[in-house]
Amino acid sequence: MKVALFVPCYVDQLHPQVAHATVRVLERLGVEVVFPEEQTCCGQPMANAGFAADAAPLARHFLEVFGGYDHVVAPSGSCVSMVRNHYDAFLSGAPGFDRLRRGTFELCEFLTDVLKVGELPGRYPHKVGLHQSCHGLRELGLGSPSERMEPRFSKVGLLLSRLQGIELVSLSRPDECCGFGGTFAVAEEAVSCLMGRDRIADHLAAGAEVVTGTDVSCLMHLDGLARRTRLPLRFRHVAEILAEATA
Question: In whole angstroms, what is the distance from residue 244 CA to residue 128 CA?
Answer without folding.
Answer: 14
